[in-house]
Records
---
Amino acid sequence: MNGAEALVETMLASDVRVCFANPGTSEMHFVAALDTHPDMRCILCLFEGGVTGAADGYARMSGNVAGTLLHLGPGFGNGWANLHNARKGQSGIVNVVGDHAGYHLKHDAPLQSDLDGVVGSISHWTRRATDGSMVARLGADAIQAARNGQIATLILQADAAWGDGGSGPVTAPPPTPKHRPDADRIAASAKTLEEPGAALLVGGAAIFGPGAELAGQIAARTGCRLLAPFFAPRIGFGTGAVAFETLYYPAEMNAEFLKDFKRIVLVGESPPVNFFAYPGKPSTPEPPGCAIDRLCYEDWDVLGTLQALADAVGVDGTEAVSRIENSIPDSETGPLTPEGIGRGLARAIPEGAIMVNEAVTASAGIWPLVNTAAPHDRLNNTGGSIGECLPNALGAATACPDRPVFAISGDGSAMYQLQCLWTAARERMDITFVIVANKGYQILHLELAAQGAPKPGRNARAMFDIEDPLLDWVSLAKGHGVPGERVDTEEAFAAALAAAKATEGPYLIEAVI
């Protein structure tokens, strides 16, 4: 058994059974090892950003570690942006990135780079395997780190991959115990939540599933406001879901929303911060004098902290938790708008759907109408690096093959990871891609105004708009093996959603607004 085989068997023994991949020559022994272990599902993405974004989506929806295979420094660098998003979302990912054999490094071959530096800039955990006997143990350590919600990267030198794998595979240990606030801190925060002007801001595992239920019970028992972040990695919406008040993206709207709060207790979430700095404005949106109580950090024991907090405030299961009530909007006719997209989706999505959101400027019109539809999970862009939607959808569909996935993306963002359409077609994934075609990076027009800059002139418009030539998403989809259609009316959009439902595998709708 060589080092590569020991690593694959270590991954399988540790329940890592999916590897999103874009391999190269230095990874050929690892590829061969994957080939002899059919229990490992290997999914090819044609660009490394698709690899890492898919691993992120898989981790969010499965709760399990996702594996990636990347090629040297340039390959890892291509996947860096979506690893940034994954890191912000606390997704556990194990990257296996190949490197030259140790004796070859001194020759500075064309693809050689500062791989350790590139890897270290985004990974919580990184090690280099220099011979085969150490590969399995390092792989197990990487998986343990990823189980703690970290980005773990194992640099697998080619000579370690083909070298003797030593004693063979190792089963990764369970996650290390996570920190929980002490009883006095819990008690103080419990008292805080009962005071006027208090809010509980939660994130991570506290905004879907059992965690959301606990958070809702705490809010109902104490009377505090229950808040969720705008860029939630995964959050439950739809009929019967716990009703959160979500923060806003625009700095002014967030400041207005938070102006009357006196104290905010944080569990599994960072303090609110404006996405960017703006001239003459503060960096954080809370009002002066508002106390921020960071009870539980994102990488601490979020569910355990919530349970302790629930016990401290006297939750007994009889609380009248505030929930989202069902409201399906009536369909309309006429030119397609963001609101029309929202109405169509609200009427079309089934219970248990997964909605991946990177609609950007169209979001304000779409999601309020979808929020009250059938129960669903929503994945958002956690780190702000655009191009996350399409690969996140691949990962979500891999993790939950029995649940339909809807990927709602602006046209500019979707172009970053266009190649994901091919992977969706190859893997026959049940994904409906809705490309909101507004002919540009519209968010940049808003940010230009927010920075106090003049109205865009010729050069600014040339950098923001994608109108000359216009993108043809139906042709682009067809070229990647995905059927699709272009619509510009609300009634045509509803018909296209019905066609997508009737189509086996992926379907693309170019929604022109």
Note: The chain has a mean pLDDT of 96.
---
Amino acid sequence: MGSASSEPSRSSEDVYNEASATGHSASRESASSRPRGTRAGRWLSVTIVWSVVCFFLYSAWNIPKAPTGPFGVSFLHIALEASACTLLFRRFLGSSLLTHRIPLSAFFALLAALSLSRLIFAINSNSLNNPQLFSLWGSGAICLLMLGLTLDYKASTARNLNRFAPLVDAGIAAALLTIALVLRLQGPITAAVDEIIIYSEMLSLQRFPDIKFWDTSTTSNPFFVHWLVYLTASRLKNVIDSFVLEKFVTALFASLSIPIWYFAVKLLCNRRIALTAAVLLSVFGWHWVNSRFIYVYPYELTVISLATLCSLLAFGSGSFAAAAGLGLLWTFAILAKKISIIGIPFSAYLFLDFLVVRPPTTRKRILSAFLLCATVFLLTYLPFLYADGSLSTHISGSDRFFRYNQASEARQMRLAAMGLSPIGAYLHISLDAIHQLFVASSDAFRHYFRPSGPLLDPVLAVLSIIGFGYALTFSVWKRECRIAIAGLVMFTLPMILSFPLDSLEPHGIARRMVGNTFFIVLLGAMGADLISRPVARYLPRWIIPGVVCIASAMANFHFYKTEYLTQRSTVWFTDHGLRRAAVVLAARSAAQQGIAVLVLNDPTYDSPEGMLDLPNVRFLASRQELRKAISETKGAKALVIIPGPSDEYNFPVDELARDFSDLVPTYLWTPGRKSPRGYPLIVTATIESRT
């Protein structure tokens, strides 16, 4: 009975509470022996902090002072300053309930409630403009994150968090982000039709500032993403053009998903598997291509990886800060209405897995983390819900959740014609998802890496099959195996549920299951690790994963150069929008220098929506209109833009140059940006000021 093995096991929570109680007791015993200056310094710190807290509360109650200003005295600024103050004085206050957690938790809860309630009041009274409303919501979100941070115990998550705390992991993450971003910024800049529409919506915020940030745009993009990029672009307009900035921001967010996924896999497995998965994801052509477009997908890729990481920390380590972050990501997923919505049921699955199967922390803490996540989600979603009137109005509609309602209507119309029952249709599209991964994709040209080829490169295809077999075999015993399979299945659902939308053929859309790229590379990394085990006696375990990553990268680079960049000119012009991007970049660059821009419009680059903010850009529908516009241009420099020719698209550049030789000398016409096949996308002529 006295043996150590007969003692009931104690959780890390009990150990921490006991240690904390012991520490407090020791601190009370030694308090009398402390110098009076130390005690005075502590009381001074407490006084300063509470004085700052009172000032913040007073300021928050009287904000905003200037409703017509761009920001006024922002709630967001107060939240950031309060957060910095908390972190600064935490060292002096320690982690005791009385001096730190209870007062600071109450402060952040109060400030969050105040900012969100003021936001609802402002929505009702229409007293604030959108930047101020966005600032109110942002301050509430930051305060809820800080609430989660202050609720965390000092040491309860340290054991699990230190798995990726060393500087070596930070260096790896920085290298992964750099490599991923450089890859995604390579190659020609595109401006697909939807990209121009989204960009014009962002520009419309300048002309119509009453567009609410909680609304959904015509392309089902959440408008608060538009507002965030617009506010950033308006402050960097003298440094970088807003179109280039928006392309960069989308690529950056998609690239961020790769180091985040490295940290998530590191929590599940080890550094070798995590690094293999992250490198495979960096060079994965499918993820690569869909990171480059001004859609909501790049943001959702980051949300999916970050939501997985937050779920692992919240339910695996009991982190309340991660739980609060997960609640915010749920709000984004609801508003984005695309692939990230699957992150909500996937997080719920992770919660159940950690709660039921060998919980690494107490079930009470896991339940508390889930409750905090749900509370943060409800609080941060409430203003949007209030603004939209009702839950059914906000969630339902033909553009909601990867257009499921449209797909349902299309399914009813087409199933009978195709001779399929509803069950048969779901089975068909599930098989088609596998077909697109391993045989041939069938999406729009701009969304897949290999025209008419499979989404997976041969190396990753073989590794993922091996990893899937391994995960299926050990799913009962290993949590990472269950998570990989569950994620793969769940993030294929958007494609299945949207069948047969957007296509005359009986298949879904590959880009709607791009979220499963994370779990495909995880299975691939598991497969590579499994292959390396038999030769572990002869070779270091990292050799085979390294060779695999190099082989996958070489395969994707080969497909990029030989297939993606060598598609027919008409495909690039009309679908990828190379010519459209060339016009937008040339026209915007000149117009922002004060040069008048005259564009001979053409169906292959119809893009006037991309210059809505530039009054000195004119699109002319015919040669006659162009001639008249050039004749009327006097006293200022002008740039004339016309289409460029190619083998598959014949525009008579020489003929136009001869016809306009009386207005524009022939030698002034010069080729502009070129396509990957060497054809000029546009031809320009710069005319000096005319008298």
Note: The chain is about 65% helix and 5% strand.
---
Amino acid sequence: MMKKKVLSLMLAAVTALSMVACGANSESNSSSSNSTSSSSDTPLVIAWDAMSQKFSPFFAESHSDMWIEEWLVGLDLTRTTRSGQYILEGIDGYTEEYNGTEYTYYTPSNIEIVENSDGSVDYNITLRDDIVFSDGEPLTIDDLIFTMYVLADPTYDGGSAFASLPIEGIDDYRNGVSTMSVLIAEAGPSNTDFTYWTEEQQTAFWDAVANEGAAFAQGIVDYCAENGYVDSADDVAGAAKAWGFELADGATAEDFFKAIGEQYGWNFTSMDAEAATVTLADTMPADVLAMSTTGVETGDSADSISGIKKTGDYSMTLSLTEFNAPAIARLAFTIAPLHYYGDSSQYDYDNNKFGFPKNDLSIVRDKTTAPLGAGPYVFKEYSNKVAYLEANENYFLGTPSISEIQFKETQEADKVPALIQGTADIAEPSFSKNTAEQIAAENSNGEVSGDTIYTQLTDYNGYGYIGMCSKNVKVGDDASSEASKNLRKGLATIIAAYRDVVIDSYYGDAAEVINYPISNSSWAAPQKSDPDYEVAFSKDVDGNPIYTDGMSDEERYAAAEEAALGFFEAAGFTVEDGKVTAAPSGAKLSYEAIIPGSGSGDHPSFGILTGAQESLANIGIELTINDLSDSSVLWDKLSAQEAEIWCAAWGAEADPDMYQVYHSEGGSAYQYAIYSDELDALIEDARASADQSYRKAVYKECLDFIVDYAVEIPIYQRQNAVTYAAGKFDEESIVKDPSPYYDFFAELYTLKMK
């Protein structure tokens, strides 16, 4: 028998948009089946961001849709504590101290992580046997297995990364399958082999490309012409270039659509991200639209995933071929009801039937706008820009105190006024210096928490940054050369010098400047008390400090300019009389910085760019600021690797794993284009360990590497604000000690209104 070792592992998490905090109650909760007091009939109104009505546990995309489904309607397999620990023993309750108070958390599962001697890892999962969905149907292990198979299906195109885990047998299950749209597109309109599709289907596909597809692309061209990106609506190639696509002169709208299709793997839902005027979801014939999510087996493919093993009515084992640190975060998904999202008659575990036809998720997609789950609330409807939820009397932790919640779409500028005017009870406004002043003015004590508005602040799970694509900001042909790094360090030194003043002006106490490309809320983030902590881009080309204590702002800017000249000279630029006069091959004297400031400078980093623009001009470098009125242009330029410098923010992932952004094979690696074997090895090393201290040390090496590569300038960590209409709530029922991993949503079901 193979020797096993049970890992005593409580992996911490950095919250992602797709992950929710634990729905358990506070220290007063001593039972896993507490019932709350009688429900209040007064609806709770939450001023909310615009919703896209994709409230699906599988296909929700926006924050506003995800939060409703994941926190309130659905029930996750595992969640996190206030400190960011994933809960592995939630059935009987897991107790942990936070800020001096003990809190107990409950989840529907216990998860035992067992490392085998051959390096494989088993996740032995046990579910509670007394949970039912809001419609009264029992929640069993079959619901969990059904959910896993949806997430692992070859045609699944939602946001979950479950299928990226090294699950035993998952490649055998997913191999040999492609979507019909990809196969028809690759075969071309002249194809005569109809082994995998009919001639009628092929004709319908190419007719749609020539008609609805071309109209979709022409809508982009028309938009570009109307907004001055091209001179004429006939300039398809010019519009395509502005949109991030390279087409030959004389290209047609149909050619443009084909280029978009190739970039998005002919997934029509994904292609709608490029929409300017019309969407494919609204115009494409339904049978053709379905082709991009219809799987076709063209080779050998297994009927099941060997690593998903049912062991009982309420138990299973998920087997991974190797240890993967982010795996526990990938399991923090909603357990979806098989009988609702799938077809119970098509579920037969012993005969490899899992609730839907493999390669066809149409019955799952049909429920995208109407979720059902085992969470504290029941989704009733979305109407007139309001989502209506009602208390779930079957919720396993007790019937919620508030019987109805209304999520009302509200413009950002109207969120605080809605609290003041009484049209909303809770809001999450973007918390800037102006917002803080607006709130303080309404409270008699002049603070952000007072008799009119009560405010809770936590760190936001993410951070603002200014990025550079090394492919476009380099010397010669090697983006990794010391010369290329010195070019980017010269630019970064100037930009970083303006962070403190500008961020303080924009956010006040609501944000702080950060020095590493990681959210401060992560356990892996370096701390100022660490002996090797450094301020980003604060040393010159010889490694000497640029700044001294007591320097004025103007003196700091002058010191940064002098240091930047040293970096430029080391990069091969010609420097004469305190100015750069010539650039080496592959480099330039002018670079563009893109910022999505609505065309009016409405962005926290806008002042940084304008200050850097002046300083760079002083030493002979031009920085052109492109303030976009349409932020989608930035994402298009990033995906096409056309951006040089840009301003944006990262949302934190469910684990500080850096694979997605910085590893050469990560989905967002194209943005910085680092492509380093050394960095890849470090990232792989960190995600292969269960030792958090070791992972943190390796991540510090990764962070130092990224800063030295000078493609990302850390800017700010802001605070997130939850504001309540003071006097409307029982204060004792408002969540205590909220954190980036556990906020007011976690205890909405125990919140009480007066």
Note: DSSP finds 23 helices and 25 strands in the chain.
---
Amino acid sequence: MVLCLLLHFKIWGKLIHHILRKMKRTVIILMLLLAGVSCLAQEKNEFRVPDSLIVEMNRNSKPDMNRVEALANIIDYCNKNRQYEKAKPYIDDLTQISEKLDNEYVKALSYLYVGTLQINTNVKEDAFNNLSKGLQKVVTLPVNEKTMEVHVRLLNSFASLYIMQRMYTEAYNSLYSAMEINKKLKNHYIQNILEINMASVLNAMQKYDESTAILSNIIADENVTKSNKHIAYGLLSYCYRQKGDLESSIKYSDLAFETSLSRFDESRILSNMGLAYLIFGQYEKASECFRTCVYNYKDEMYEDIEINSLNYYGEVLGLTSKNDSASFFIDRAILKAKECGILELEQQCIMKKAYLLLNESDYKSYSECIQEYLCVRDSLDKVNDRQRLVSAWMSNQYNELETKLKYEKELSDMQNFKVKVRLYIILICVVSLFIIMTLAYNRRNILIKNKDMELKNKDMELKNKELKEEVLTKEIESRNRELTAKALVQVQRQELLTDMVEKLKAIQDDKKKLSRNLDDVITNFEKYKNSTTPEDFDYYFTQTNPDFYKHLLVDFPYLTPYEQRLCAFLRLSLNTKDIATILNIGPESAKVARARLRKRLNIAGSDEDLTTFLSKY
């Protein structure tokens, strides 16, 4: 009977040891995942809402977009510092404003914050419903920087929810979609957060090489924030621990510790370092890490980190044969897990205590511990069953949501395509109308120009015709004046010849008067020889050039009649010799007269020809 009991305990001991190893790995993964996807990391984790945010919110008391922005800033600050209950009144205020404003963007933002709060308070079904509503709202909004950011954050929250349900494929798809949207948004900070969360999912899927590649790029980025680099170091430490590289794991844990921004982060890194040492059998270093967490970070640890630190510290003490101390710390871990209602950690702690009691051969306490474990396991099974149902429901909802979003996206694309087609048609019509109007306007201008050209041509023809008529008229008048002058000269000569003939006849009748009459004939012939007297010349000249003297005297009123007549000779292009003959003077005198005339006309110092100058008149 005793042998059977001992055999029974040995079997249970092996089973407990196997379950502990399996649960240890699961808890480690969950711890790191929660570290990676808890919130968009912030430079300071110590919670204190800045006065500037409070002042900004109080300044914008009206329910408008300014107050929405102020509330969003405070909610983000609370979420980043894991003060979810502190954010709740601000989220409620934002929800009320979204109903008053009836703004689709504000509604999507409100659904995001409500869903995030429900994720962190473990109300998963409601969280999924609110996030789904927010996603359905945001996909119908115009694409801009604000709507894309809300879209990315919604998908990131979905990924967090799927990770909690261990739906890693769905989480991967959500993060991948968020990254694709962020390529257009080009937000470097959000991209780093999405990559960190993607690395966490890849760790959970045991794709350590892909995770290591992503995290190495983040660490190499000079612009990455210190908080993001801290998380990347922690995840790399986990990757190398899973690969069996303790040295690299501890190296990145040290770097994570150096870049930590709060004692909360330091306690988590120390706990992970202790776990690495524990896995690789370096119990003294593991004990030192867990002891530092338990005693130095007692009031700065998160509940899950505190429970694990107490539990693992007890395990290390048990492995180093310090059973009493081990039992003490494991009991504290069990008590803390019960207070926090974390059944999975409570079950793990009870299993470790049972294993410790089995090694001490305290079978009675071991049996009681097993009974307690079975009770907790039953409760946890119910929770897990519930969780599996939620996961199944959520998976089904995920497929429906994906189909619905795809349909809405196609519908939105179709509507956008219709709008674009209408715009293109309107644009084509406007351009066509513009071209037609331009062509018509150009044609009208061309016709007007042609008419103007025709009118100008007609005017030119009329002017040319009038000019020709005027020239012909002037030419006719000039010819008439010449004919008149010639006729007068002919009449005068005829009269003179007639007079001479009569006188010659008289000579024949009266010889006594011969001598006197011959003298008259000679005189008359002399007169005929020089019949062109100055007065006669002026008369004939004015007949052909009626305005010459008038225009000349306007510019030179001081000219004498002799000078005027000399100008007339020059106007007729007579040379010096001809002028001298007409005036009965010598050629030299004519030259002197020309020189004096140049002075009188004020052109003595110029090279201008006297005849050319007078031709203007």
Note: The radius of gyration is 61 Å.
